[in-house]
Amino acid sequence: MHPTIPLSAPLDELLDAAKSRYDVRFEPVSIAGETLEILQIADLEALIDRLVLTAGQGPITLPYWAKIWPASMLLGHFLAHLGPGDGRTLLELGAGVGICGLFAAKQGFTTLLTDIHPDALLFSQINILQNGLADRASVAHADFAADRLGRRFDVILGSEVLYLEDLYRGLLKFLLAHIALAPGAEVVLAKDYTRKATRFLGMAEKEFHQAERVVGYKETNPESGEPERKLCQIYRLRPRKHA
């Protein structure tokens, strides 16, 4: 076990904590003409291989939080459709390293990045400080299946949060407890097209007006090295009820 470090610590101390656990480096990530420096695990595949080898027959926790998923990048691009932040509040669920929330903060949203993994929060906080966004972005632990933050937000974002059906009911209740009760408030969720979420959308139909957009992108096949066309679904959910 590694000692925990308060997320209020200075950037250099947070970065030292990350380096004590992982081989890391900053990498530029560009979305819609903006570029941020994002802390990444230098070789995520090699880390996963080591975890599998050292685990033996025991369970392992794979660092999915550290991967920048294509849906997160596409959701980051989609932020332009939400208009300027202008101080509006935004919550990101399952933020991982914070891609969507960071670019939302860059766009002017007052942003809260949440995750359940402490290292995801560490990386997100480092990325906030590295990019000079501490005045608009912060991090907090949040399990959307159980927690309540006591606040409502104009926008809630989630990338690849629909992969476990057992969490659907908790997620829906969390969204209803945290989305602002005002016209213009919305939830925006992105997922890989191959992951079905029909049951969640059916559950949400009573509470939210729904719109879907399918976005195509190309991804290199790791085995063949050839580009493959993939699809991502982006859902916009607007509350049927307002205050």
TrEMBL record:
InterPro entries: Methyltransf_16, SAM-dependent_MTases_sf. It holds the Pfam family Methyltransf_16. It comes from the Bacteria. The keyword Transferase applies. One of its GO terms (molecular function) is methyltransferase activity. CDD domains: AdoMet_MTases (cd02440). Gene3D superfamilies: Vaccinia Virus protein VP39. Keywords: Methyltransferase, Transferase. The keyword Repeat does not apply. GO terms for biological process: methylation. Transmembrane segments: none annotated. This is Methyltransferase small. It comes from Solidesulfovibrio carbinoliphilus subsp. oakridgensis.
